[in-house]
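sanity check both lines:
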Amino acid sequence: MITLRQLRYFEALSETLHFGRAARRLNISQPALSAQIAQMETFFGGALFQRSSGGIALTGEGAAIGARVRSILTEVRELESIATAGDAPLSRRLRLGVIASVAPYLLPSLLAVLADEHPQLECEVRESVTDRLLRELSAGEIDCAIVALPVDERGLETLTLFEDRFHFAVPADQADRYARRIPIRLMRDVRLILLEEGHCLRDQALEICQIADPSERAGLGATSLSTILRMVAAGLGATLIPDMAVADETRRGGIAILPFEDPAPARTIALAFRPSTARRQDFEVLADVIRRAGGQANDLAA
């Protein structure tokens, strides 16, 4: 017979692929974890994890079982949420995902407001790219995620948070070459430095600039907007920067921020969650806090 405890232990081990780290996450001893995994393997009649001197990995059967385990535990967590639906909003553990092009600019003000207004909340933050966050959200590994629309993942609901306008970032000593307001068509004629593939901000920039084949325009790339803007400051190209990043990213100097012609391009930031959740009230309250925190970030950038 399989128990919920075993499923949770299996989940932790399959995510960490390390007995010690999984045991610490679960706050149990490593022998206790090993014993429960061994019982599962006996039940299924074969190894679920391959052990070697280099570490552990899921076997083929383990990977197939893992998909079912995530689905079962997602439903269990939704049932557990119903039991606490009468609690005060944002008064317990919340696993929040945030895309990398939003996290460093929104989280400082957001977490400060949450700590002040909802001191009982235990907020765990995971920063990553959109596709990974949506997969984790669908699998129940996080409770909600701050992302940029559109969300292509089916079966998720969203609450719109705010609009985040884009500006054109160029080397400070080249700003005089450009008009006071930048036409979008100009983007086809400049060397754009973009985030690496997988970041939604890259896809948004390509769509805004109407570049079908970016290979000649984006010979340089990086995993963070901060790195890209240092490249811009060094005279290696130009890029797009969202409102919320302007205040932080212009402190070091070397770049000029130029506005686009109206209507200026923008991205829509939203809070995504599973429609089956019993925590909708939590997410509506969280969305209101994010809107206020996002407004603070944009005020600083203005």
